[in-house]
Amino acid sequence: MSEPPVVVGDPRLSRQESAVLLAYVSGLTMAAVARRTGIGLGTAKQYLDRVKRKYAAVGRPARTKLELARRAVEDGLLPWAERPHQPDPLTRQPVRR
User: Fold this and answer.
1) Looking at the predicted structure, is the pLDDT value of residue 18 above 70?
2) Terminus-to-terminus CA distance in the chain, angstroms?
3) Phi and psi, residue 94, nearest 5°
4) Which sign, positive or negative, has the C-alpha torsion 28, 67, 46, 8?
5) Three-class SS of residue 93?
6) Handedness of CA 24, 36, 89, 51 (dihedral sign)
7) How confident is the model at residue 76 (pLDDT cuts 50, 70, 90)?
8) 3-class SS at 78?
9) d(CA 2, CA 82)
């Protein structure tokens, strides 16, 4: 069975990586992220590091929490990214698709 094609700029995050990313950019500390996702703190940090590496590998670096939140909005991972009438919480501007 062949792998699905990779979309340019798509970091192809796993379900667990996405869960850690979303919890982290929602404002939780890494300890709270670990508790919410039911994994250890070290594992949560590893997932977040993996997310950052995957974004960098597709030419969309995200080193800070703000940059990670921006990527999550761009990728439609956050609820307000799907509702254009809601402002982007980072820029207070309408989300454009």
Assistant:
1) yes
2) 33
3) -60, 140
4) positive
5) coil
6) positive
7) confident
8) coil
9) 30
Residue labelled with tokens 């698709």? 97
Q: Which residues contact 6 (CB under 8 A, 6 or more apart)?
A: 12
Alpha-carbon gap, residue 78 to 22, rounded angstroms: 7
More confident residue, 68 or 89: 68
Decide if 37 contacts 16 (C-beta within 8 A). Answer: yes
Reported pTM:
0.74
Q: What is the pLDDT of residue 81?
A: 46
Classify burial at 85, counting beta carbons within 10 Å of its beta carbon; exposed 0-12, middle 13-18, buried 19 or more.
exposed
pLDDT 10s digits, 44-57: 999 999 999 999 99
Question: If DSSP codes are grouped into helix, strand and coil, which group holds residue 26?
Answer: coil
Q: Name the nearest CA neighbour of 27 among 83, 76, 87, 68.
A: 68
Question: In terms of Cα–Cα distance, which of 47, 93, 54 is closest to 71?
Answer: 54
Quick count: other Cβ atoms within 10 Å of Cβ 80? 14
Q: What is the pLDDT of residue 78?
A: 81
